[in-house]
Amino acid sequence: MLLTFLGRKKEGVLDGDLSHLCALLAEALQALVTEGLVEREKLESFNLPLYGPSIDEVKAVIALNKLFGIDHIQLFESNWDPYDDMENDGMCSSPQHGVNVAKSIRAVFEPLLASHFGECILDELFQRYARNVERHLAEDNTKYSMELDFHMAIGEAEANYANNSRLQRKALIKTKPVLEKVMRQVYMALLPPTMVVADLGCSVGINTLLFVSKVTSTVADAQCHNELGCHFMELQFFLNDLPRNDFNQVFQSLQQFTKSIAAGHPKGVALPPFYISGLPGSYYNRLFPCQSVHLFHSSYCLHWQSQKREAITVSLLTVLKICVFSISLFHKISMPDKILLSYLPIWNNIQLFIVTQLIKDMNKKMAYLNGENIYIAKSTPQSMVELYQDQFQKDMSLFLKLRHQELVPGGKMLLTFLGRKKDDVLDGDLSHLFGLLAQALQSLFTEGIVEKGKLESFNLPIYGPSIDEVKTVITRNKLFCIDHIELFESNWDPYDALEHDGMHISPHRGMNVAKCIRAVSEPLLASHFGEYILDKLFQRFAQIVERHLAKENAKYSAIVLSLNRRD
Ligand SMILES: C[S@@+](CC[C@H](N)C(=O)[O-])C[C@H]1O[C@@H](n2cnc3c(N)ncnc32)[C@H](O)[C@@H]1O
């Protein structure tokens, strides 16, 4: 007999390859339950008649039966995507992988699923499954990295960032006068033949090119008003974002943009020639050659931290296990040896070292625990607050160091990011907002849709510093001096044109805020909690925000900062 069948590489039966593959299918089915397309009882009564044994299990059953002797037994692996010829562990990020896997699984499970759930759900189910698989494969064996995986919401127009970035657009409009001033200072001082301008965290949508058009028209105006004399200047733009940003969409809109910017400009005023390039990569790395950029701009990005903070409940368990193991090891040593060992200073030092390391490790891991909060809240332990603050200091210092290397002497930066109006770190504007999102998650936990462990281990990698914190880190780094710093506020609801303190009772505010937050946090939340919770989560969040805004007005605080490079 020659038999080939699916098996399991790892000994642990709960950690098999099929468990991962089928869990993503279950996640897709759960999403259909949430949307009312599949009955909960139907899902609960369904189990796939499939089992992937380990090699040892196969050997054991053959040995037990005594009917055959094993001539050859071997385990081989193949990628989930049957069209993926590279059988390595590399990243799989092509959108086709999810579809390929979904097709091959559908081909074998379709009759089974159709007879239990009905044929009508199949298309929807496997579309969702394809997306889940896609996300899973892109997560490089389940680890989410801010640098490789973080991006704004893409996909359906209703929820994507490009169509839900009005809040950020308002900030670009608000900071236009500062940008014009900074631009003028740079080109008047340096008069470069080509001015190199980089927008860090450009994202996608109208905001991306709004910045380009503002810079271009500022230079055109200067040329028109003869501010530059006979100096002729070209513009080179670099649009930077993380690799998973939809750069293609930006590139595809360039032709139309070039036409519209020319058409929208007053007749007789020539636009400076401009060239636009995309630059994927994290701005927490070097992006440009030394002293090659004249102006850096970044809007609504620097509050995102470079690291994701996971509460490590599993590691805590590991630490406890090590403690128990050490104690039991000591008990196994015979009494005379123990007495002998206790006289040995080396043994004492080793014990002291192990205990200190364990306590340190434990403290570090405990610091990640933030209860059911997902951002700094009133009940957040001081150790956790410090982690957020340390990360802010580290990220900002690194950012300043890298940009200082890349800026030409005399170059400038204009940065706008979310901050905090009050000095009290526990009472920031973001704490209120994300406190409400945590409430929405908690309510899904109460309904059994979100697991407690998942909720407790999630913390948003975002930080809103106060003006003083920003000043401190810049002063300490001694690489830039502050030209301008100010804090401005905008209402949570980006469609609220009136930036006043009156009461809000419109029924759409909750939904508007929810859409805006979903557009920036969807991939992060989907990767941690699963895509299936998103619709319900943001519906709940919209209701909670709605109630909150009916009681009091709420605002974001943003910090605008212009910096001069120190030589
Ligand atoms: C809210 S969007 C703002 C986009 C745009 N500047 C605007 O005003 O609409 C934040 C952007 O920052 C990007 N981002 C976050 N961390 C980044 C990093 N380390 N390097 C480059 N881009 C980053 C995100 O991918 C996202 O596109």
Automatic annotation (TrEMBL):
<keyword id="KW-0460">Magnesium</keyword>
<protein>
    <submittedName>
        <fullName>Uncharacterized protein</fullName>
    </submittedName>
</protein>
<dbReference type="Pfam" id="PF03492">
    <property type="entry name" value="Methyltransf_7"/>
</dbReference>
<keyword id="KW-0479">Metal-binding</keyword>
<dbReference type="InterPro" id="IPR029063">
    <property type="entry name" value="SAM-dependent_MTases_sf"/>
</dbReference>
<dbReference type="InterPro" id="IPR042086">
    <property type="entry name" value="MeTrfase_capping"/>
</dbReference>
<dbReference type="GO" id="GO:0008168">
    <property type="term" value="F:methyltransferase activity"/>
</dbReference>
<dbReference type="InterPro" id="IPR005299">
    <property type="entry name" value="MeTrfase_7"/>
</dbReference>
<dbReference type="GO" id="GO:0046872">
    <property type="term" value="F:metal ion binding"/>
</dbReference>
